[in-house]
Design a protein that fits this description.
The complex is a heterodimer of chains A (526) and B (624).
Chain A: E1 2-6, E2 9-13, H1 19-25, E3 49-52, E4 59-60, E5 71-73, H2 77-92, H3 108-115, E6 134-137, E7 140-142, H4 152-160, E8 167-169, E9 176-178, H5 192-196, E10 202-204, E11 217-222, E12 231-237, E13 240-246, H6 259-262, H7 266-269, E14 276-278, E15 285-287, H8 289-305, E16 310-314, H9 320-333, E17 339-340, H10 363-369, E18 391-395, H11 399-402, H12 404-413, E19 416-421, H13 426-430, E20 433-436, E21 445-448, E22 453-457, H14 470-480, H15 490-498, H16 509-512, E23 517-518
Parallel strand pairs in A: 1-5, 16-17, 16-18, 18-19, 19-20
Antiparallel strand pairs in A: 1-2, 3-4, 3-5, 6-7, 7-10, 8-9, 11-12, 12-13, 14-15, 14-20, 21-22, 22-23
Chain B: H1 7-17, H2 27-38, H3 43-53, H4 57-66, E1 78-83, H5 86-90, H6 93-104, E2 110-111, E3 117-122, E4 134-136, E5 139-141, H7 146-157, E6 172-173, H8 193-198, H9 203-209, H10 214-223, H11 235-240, E7 254-259, H12 268-275, H13 277-291, E8 295-300, H14 305-320, E9 331-336, H15 346-353, E10 377-381, H16 382-394, H17 396-400, E11 410-417, E12 423-428, H18 433-440, E13 450-454, E14 463-464, H19 465-469, H20 475-480, E15 489-494, H21 499-513, H22 519-536, H23 542-555, H24 563-584
Parallel strand pairs in B: 1-3, 6-12, 7-8, 7-10, 8-9, 11-15
Antiparallel strand pairs in B: 1-4, 2-3, 4-5, 11-12, 13-14, 13-15
Chain lengths: 526, 624
Amino acid sequence: MTEFTLDGSKRTVPDGLSVLEAARTCGTEIPHFCYHPGLGPDGNCRLCLVEIEGARGLQTSCNTKLAPGMVVRAMGKDAVAARQAVLEFVLLNHPIDCPICDQAGECKLQDYYVALGAADSRMAFPKVRKRKREAIGAGVMLDKERCVLCARCTRFFSNVMKDEQLVIANRGNHAEIATFPGRKLDSPYAGNIVDICPVGALTSEAFRFRARVWLLQATPTICTGCATGCNIYADAKDGVVYRFRPRTNPDVNGWWICDEGRYSYPAVNENRLVAARIGRGPGAREASVEEAVAAAAAELAAVRDTGGTIAVVASPDASCEEVFLARRIAEDALRTPHRTGRSVKPPGVGDALLRHRVKHPNTPGVALVGLAPGAGGRDLPGLLSPPRPDAWLLLGGDLAAEGGAPAAEALSAARSVVAIVPHAGATAASATVALPGATWIEKDGTFVSAKGRLQRARAAFPPRGDARADLEILAALGAALGVRLPGPRAEETFRAMRAGIPALAGIEWDAIGEGGVALPGGVGPP
Amino acid sequence: MSGALKPETVQRIREAAAQYPRRDAAMLPALWAVQEERGWIGPPEMAEVAELLGVSPVRVFGVVSFYTLFDTRPRGRHKVQVCRTLSCALAGSARLCERLRSRLGVGAGETSADGQFAWEEVECLASCGTGPVVQVDGESYEGLSTEGLDRVLDGILGNVPRATPDRASAPKPVLGAPPFLSQWFGEDGPLPISVYAARGGYRALREARARPGGEVLEAVKASGLRGRGGAGFPTGTKWGFIPKVPSPAGSPIYVVVNADESEPGAFKDRALLELAPHLVIEGILLACHAVGAQSAYVYVRGEFAEPYRTLTRAVAEARDAGLVGAAAGADLILHRGAGAYICGEETALLESLEGKKGYPRLRPPFPAQKGLFGQPTVVNNVETLATVPVIMAGGAANFAKVGTPKSPGTKLVSISGRVRRPGLYEVPLGVPLKRILHEVAGGPAPGRSIKAVIPGGSSTPILTVAEAEEITFDWEALASKGTFLGTGGIIVLDDGDCLVRVLANLARFYAHESCGQCTPCREGTGWSRNLLAALEAGHGTARDLALLKEIAGNMRGRTICVLADALAMPVQSYLQRFGPEFEAHLSGKCPLPESATSRTSARTSAYLPAVAPAGPLDKGGGPA
């Protein structure tokens, strides 16, 4: 630990920090543009100047290592005056088009300006004009006039992606961010530059002008697009998700997420199954969830009691708690060996940074919970070939779509298909009883990433329409089949599930926190 | 994308790349090769260069956009560049621009309708003592009148005999200075290696190489030599920062030569490169021996076409003589800049040498720890290195006998502006500045009196004539007046010069040359330029003067490098010492209507082809 003095108070912080990081650790935010924890200091903005006793002149706190006993005045008169001067310089050629700027509410320039005095412009000359509203590719919009040239975006490409796609062209006050002439950004991670841009120079085509950020509620959750489990904020309002943003977690995703995950939010808004349905084809009718659960239980019980085969398939999109309840229903209520959490979805694109080729969030979780074929039981894709099951209980995912023609045929040939799914997709259409599950953004639960990290997803808002958290539906279904299941709150289900799983021993629900916990010994590959 | 360039060009690029430990460092040579083939550099060529050098195309685009000498669109057959910076402006460069505008029918930055000439205003071309200078296709024509300019252009078109380009002038030792450096200059061209060696050149190098390099280091330390590039840092101390342990294989030490002379008012390094290349080369090789470097890179300013050619030939001579090359102990690689004053700043220079934009680096680490390609590096100015053979040949004590204890030796001073005999001189440090101004430079033109002196290049704080005339010319005395010896580029202003106009000229220079990295410099230089232009045009207010001062205060000491200071210090010193002159401008009218650009310097005469303009230095005859 290093002891130092910050604005008159003695403080102790971990070793190895810069003055800026040390101050931040103590709760003092020193204004800055170019420094970013994921990119390091660059020293170009000159906003983070502080007074350090014994040093000649003001020092940039971003690239000054904290030394023991250092006396730092972050809020000293000279430092504050210097920052005000830098802000005046920044604003000199800035268009000040805040009323039509979509960065409002999360603009560092605006925040600092308001905090540091808000003086009127003393510049009486025409401003340097640059291009505005330039679509530079990958869904990113560039406004060169608003740019403060902090070089975060260019450094993201050169330092993080190791693939320069943006550059600061020209020099002096004509310097501007640019792509190569005639080329657009082409990167699966380009959206990150929108997040790290401290001002309204880089905005997202998909998000801009859709919502004012102060009206959005940010829920700390995880992305379920692949096995990495990147930590994100889901920004939502009135049951609609407007964007996903990375949430810093050095153990998982650092400061970044991929565009695949970032732009996956429309899926939670669109094509939802919002009411239960009984029957398929022309005879199908909407029903209440309670009636549909009863019908589902009756159908499954009939097949069970007549010696038919029942397959229970939970998608690895489902949470550990859901998979646990599915397993309990399969083992205790339906007493079928044909139970699986395997996916038939083909793998996608992976890379060394964040994207995992397994596009499910919880494959290791399925293994951990132990949903697997019993003695004489069959697994996917074998279950899709004759002799096909007479009945299916499907949880999450969209087996009919993911498994192609064999899956669609197997489901339509079955006597009974009970599907608990969030979307009105192919599986819901082929179900004899379709139960409206929640999307992952509407429910709580734990997931285990490819690296064996147990993390929590959190409900951003209640399920839409008549949809229910899957745990509620599963608990009701279990009850209707005569089995009392723990829950339906995820925390209660987790506690019951933990009892039988050594890897989860001692892990408290609250201790999982926002950052998750590494499971002892990790888990096998997804 | 590939296949657009000629095979010869591709070959040149590959050969250039082989001269660096990383091929992307060959960016500037590659772009020069492309421009020489095509005349300009378009996106397809940038993409091909990127492929050849293994970098992203957008990096190449950024570099091309940063350096002013690279053209991104087709230009006229001949490129005409008029220096518009202070000394040439004082000598009447505005009239040359006016002439080009009317003769070619197009504005600066454009090409004449017949496609023959593209003309532009450029910053200091290091001909300050013989301005105004115009470069046509890399050749310098100095001391031009409008008629002289016409004759140069007509000569290029073949209408009249072609004018002979001007070369740099050799320095004259004055005020009792031993000709430490002056004696090694050729008169009409570079001193050939045969003459250089016959007079004892390279003997110091051969002797030094027979002994440990540490002896060179000790001698330079003992001499007290201070850097001639501007900061005046003791050279031996700087060398001493290089780690002494023998460098492991693949972990070399570099010597980098800063031949990017571009400080307005300084034109000494250009002369050294053009006329005394072997003195420079011997100095570089001695430095390599002193610090244990096996290779040296010489960063030659892009505008210096002639010095680059001269030095290239001289290096070949030295190579043939067995003095340069891996077998000789040190190799020497020339690297041509491409138009950026900031690359004279040592870390910007290193970035540029590595093939990037000239952005100064954050320090620490310092170049001695992590310099070129991340290796320990010493960066020295041309004149500094040229002084090393003098010390080694004559002994440190002999060198230190001249000058003052803290400013030993002689110094090349470049004198321009309102004196009768501008030019390059070698003076003993510590002589009265008054003697330099009057005895050496001949004092003001008849009927004029000196008003102010910029002592060390345009970025050094200005002195009143009274201040200038009471001090000696050395680091200590100049520091006592709050200014610097800098590069030794003295610019003299007389009672007819309007200091508002002078400062406006300099502000334009610094705004043009700011790399744009740090906020205060990027915005502050441009703002100051606008304020001063308005003030000069008679639209200024008292509030503007206060603002100017405040902006200077907000720039100074607040940036990664000192380019911001290089404008802030002049602004502060001009306002402090000549405030009333700025206030007088608030009336809307310049009190010195015939100032600055409206007069030619005392020295300038009509340009006559094939002969040098009149001057204090005999460049081979010509009418006075």
